[in-house]
Specification:
This protein is an all-alpha fold and about 475 residues long. The chain has 24 helices and no strands.
C-alpha cells in the first residue's frame, strides 16, 4: 500500500496504481511528520527511563521483608491492570483546570498560584501525558524485576554482609548484575511498547494541543483515518518500522550475548515502609479517586472544592450503568462481549504459542534464528500501522463488526508475543531435566503439562493476554465494532 495510490476519498479510475516512492516523498516533505518524530523520541526517552527507575526502586522495596509486603505487592499492580481508557478518563478529570484534584492540591500546598490546564497547554500537555504513561507502566517493571531479584541466592547477600558491604554496594555488585538479563528484556519491551503507544496520548489529548502530543502512531492513524490517505499513512508506518527493526536487531544481539538475611535494623525497616507507602499512594491515588467519584453526584464531581469522601454518596451511577439498555448504552452486553473476545483470544493464542515456543526452544532446524528474530520483530509493529491493512483484509473477508474478526485481529499480535515468552521460559528449563522425565516414560506433552515452571508461566501469560485484550481499544475503534 505504501507504493500505491490509495486515497480513499479521491479514488482514481485506474484503481490503486503503483506510484513508486511518491508516498514516501510526501511523508518526508511533511513538517508534521518530523514534529511527530521529535515528540515520539522525547516520549520514549522520558517514559522508558521513568518507568524503569521507579519500577526498579519499587522492586527493591518490595524485595525486602516488612509487615504487609504481600498486600503492597498486590496493590502495586493495580495501575497496570486498569484499562488504559478508564485510567485516562480518571486522569482527565484529575487534570481538569477548574475541577481537578491536582490543581486543588498543588494550590493548597502553595506550589501553584493559579490553575493550569494541563491537557490544553502546549508546554504542559506532553509532560502530563508522560506522567500517565509512567504511572500506568511502572508496576509491570517492578513485578518483572522483583521476580528476577527473588531468584538471587541469599547466600550472596549474607557473604557481602560479612565483608561489610553497604546496601548500595550490594545493589551495585550483586543485584544489578544478577538481574541484567531480566533488565535487558524489560528495557526491550518498554521501548517496543512505547514505540507502539497510541491509546494514552490519543485519549488524553488526541495529539493536541497544536500537535504537542502527536506521536508517530497518532500521525499515522490521523493520516489514514482522518484524511483517508492510506498510501501516505502506510509509507510513514514503514519508515517507522525500519527504525524500529534496526533497534530490535541491536537488542536481539544483546539478548544473545546474555544467554552465551537478612536482618535489617529497625530504622531501615521504617524507611522502607515509608517509601513503600509513598509508592503505593502514587500508584493508587487515581484509582481511589475513581472509586470516590463513582459515588458522587454530578454536581459534586464538578465542584471547585473537590473532596475524597463524597458529601452525599449515591449509587445512582451504578444503577444507571446496570439497568440502562439502549442502542447507545448497554453495559452488560459490552461486558459479555469483552469477556468472550478476551477468553477466545487467550485460549487460541496460548495453545499455538506453547507449541511454537517449545518447538523453537527444543528443536534445531535451519532458519531457527531467523524465525526467532522474526517473531520478536512482530512486536515492533505499531498497531496504527497494521490497522489499515487489517481493516482492508477484514473488510474483504466480511469480518468487520464481528467477534470472530476482532479475535483474529488480536491473535495476530498475541500469538507472536506469547510464543516469544514461552520460548524464553522453555530455554530456562534444563534439557537434562526433560530427558530424565522422558526416561521415566513421560512424553513431551506430559512433561510440559506437569511441569510447575511451565504451569506458572502459562498462568502468568494467560493473565497478561486476558488483561491486554480486555484493555485494547485501537482496533475496536478503527474497525467500528458497534456491539463491542
Amino acid at each position: 500500500m505504501s507504493f500505491q495510490y490509495y486515497y480513499v476519498t479521491k479514488p482514481s479510475p485506474n484503481g490503486h496504481y503503483f506510484v513508486g516512492l511518491e508516498n514516501y516523498g510526501k511523508v518526508l516533505q511533511d513538517e508534521y511528520f518530523f514534529n511527530s518524530v521529535k515528540v515520539t523520541l522525547i516520549y520514549i526517552v522520558v517514559t522508558v527511563a521513568g518507568r524503569y527507575i521507579i519500577g526498579f526502586i519499587t522492586a527493591l522495596l518490595l524485595n525486602t521483608k516488612f509487615l504487609g509486603r504481600g498486600l503492597a505487592r498486590a496493590l502495586i499492580i493495580i495501575p497496570w491492570a486498569v484499562p488504559e481508557v478508564v485510567a485516562c478518563l480518571v486522569w482527565i478529570l484529575m487534570y481538569d483546570k477548574d475541577y481537578g484534584i491536582i490543581n486543588f492540591l498543588l494550590n493548597n500546598a502553595g506550589i501553584l498560584s493559579h490553575n493550569i490546564a494541563y491537557l490544553q497547554d502546549v508546554s504542559v500537555a506532553l509532560p502530563a501525558a508522560m506522567v500517565v504513561n509512567i504511572w500506568k507502566g511502572f508496576p509491570y517493571v517492578a513485578i518483572m524485576l522483583l521476580a528476577g531479584m527473588q531468584s538471587v541466592s541469599t547466600d550472596l547477600y549474607e557473604a557481602a554482609d560479612i565483608d561489610g558491604a553497604t546496601t548500595f554496594q550490594k545493589i551495585r555488585y550483586i543485584t544489578i548484575p544478577a538481574i541484567r538479563s531480566v533488565s535487558t528484556t524489560v528495557f526491550l519491551l518498554l521501548i517496543i511498547w512505547t514505540i507502539k503507544d497510541y491509546a494514552i496520548a490519543y485519549v488524553l489529548t488526541k495529539g493536541g494541543p497544536s500537535r504537542a502530543t502527536e506521536l508517530l502512531t497518532i500521525y499515522i492513524q490521523q493520516t489514514g483515518f482522518k484524511y483517508f490517505d492510506f498510501g501516505k499513512a502506510s509509507a510513514a508506518g514503514m519508515l517507522m518500522l525500519l527504525v524500529a527493526l534496526a533497534f530490535t536487531f541491536f537488542y536481539f544481539k544483546v539478548l544473545n550475548k546474555e544467554e552465551e538475611d537478612m536482618k535489617k535494623r529497625t530504622g531501615r525497616k521504617v524507611i522502607t515502609v515509608i517509601l513503600v507507602v509513598i509508592v503505593c499512594m502514587f500508584a493508587l491515588f487515581p484509582f481511589v479517586w475513581m472509586i470516590s467519584t463513582s459515588f458522587k453526584t454530578a454536581g459534586e464531581v464538578y465542584s471547585k472544592t473537590p473532596s475524597f469522601i463524597p458529601k452525599a454518596a449515591t449509587m445512582q451511577g451504578y444503577k444507571e450503568m446496570l439497568t440502562t439498555h439502549s442502542t447507545t448504552f448497554n453495559f452488560m452486553q459490552w461486558l459479555g462481549n469483552s469477556v468472550i473476545v478476551s477468553l477466545l483470544t487467550t485460549a487460541f493464542s496460548m495453545i499455538i504459542a506453547t507449541l511454537g515456543g517449545y518447538g523453537i526452544s527444543r528443536f534445531r532446524f535451519r532458519g531457527r534464528g531467523f524465525l526467532s528474530y522474526f517473531i520478536l520483530t512482530t512486536q515492533v509493529l505499531p498497531g496504527s500501522l497494521l490497522i489499515i491493512p487489517l481493516y482492508v483484509i477484514m473488510g474483504n473477508l466480511q469480518l468487520l463488526d464481528t467477534k470472530i474478526g476482532l479475535v483474529a485481529a488480536y491473535c495476530t499480535f498475541s500469538i507472536p508475543f506469547c510464543t516469544w515468552m514461552m520460548k524464553g521460559f522453555f530455554d530456562t528449563i534444563p534439557i537434562s531435566l526433560e530427558e530424565a522425565a522422558r526416561v521415566d516414560g513421560a512424553g513431551r506433552f506430559n512433561f510440559c503439562n506437569g511441569n510447575p515452571a511451565v504451569d506458572s508461566t502459562g498462568f502468568g501469560s494467560n493473565g497478561y493476554l486476558f488483561l491486554h485484550q480486555w484493555m485494547e481499544r485501537v482496533f475496536i475503534c478503527q474497525h467500528i465494532y458497534e456491539e463491542l
